[in-house]
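INTERNAL AUDIT FORM
Audit reference: QA-55
Scope: verify that the stored structure record matches its stored sequence.
Auditor: D.O.
Record contents follow.
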Amino acid sequence: MSLQEKFTGTGIAIVTPFNDDRSIDWASFEKLINFWIENKVEYLVAVGTTGESATQTREEEQEVFDFVKKITGGRVPLVAGVGGNDTREVLEAFGNMKLDGYDAILSVSPYYNKPRQEGIYQHYKALNDAAPLPIIMYNVPGRTGMSVSVETTLRIAHDCKNIFATKEASGSFEQVNQIMKAKPANFMVISGDDAITLPMIACGAKGLISVVANAYPKEYSDMVRLCLAGKFEAALPLHLKYLDMVDALFKEGSPSGVKYALHKMGYCKNTMRLPVVPVSKNHEERIDQLMAVIAN
């Protein structure tokens, strides 16, 4: 199966469940992995932003990678989140981590440093040259403070043959359209924004790496598959059904919203690592209301 086939459809940026003491809750993790796979998502992304990568050590990340691989047992492709804002340290992680059983790496653009576009390009060029696996680059300016421009994305897509896709979460359709217009034929654009996945697929995106699918894997995967088949009229009711929930799951921070929903479903504790905290009681009521509407 080609990379394009493996990563067409719905991937989940999976949560990392924690115990009350904020250690990793392995029993809940196993239950969640089976829930996601049984509900027919195409692939899983471990230790991304939703997995609270910012508050995990590289040693913990390796433990998560090993566990997810073991429980998945080859049933779906796997992506390892390995990124950072220190290029040298990310390259060291590439060299030290054991990623056998994984199909690709998701690596976010450098955050906090606010490099100019040449620095972003050089960062990804260095990762490309040392890549132990194919790489999905990740543009999420709302978290990193810098957007990877159209020009830089296309430069990477043409020059860096080990970088085969971008997870695009800029929210800019001008950006998406211009990337689509000039990208290499085999370079994939993947939505990084649940709320605009349907129109992004209409523009040429090949699927989604989702947060909301942590809680609603079957329904969101069905919506994406309908879109990819060109059945937008059939997909639209599902898209609209979850719009308010998508907004609610992000309104007081992610993964706080989706972890609360999963907690209500009985899959994990409502526990995050500081500085991320649970959603407010008022917002819990809003999510409860939306969950009830979706269930009916």
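Auditor finding: record pair retrieved intact. Residues 99 and 293 are 41 Å apart (CA to CA).
Action required: none
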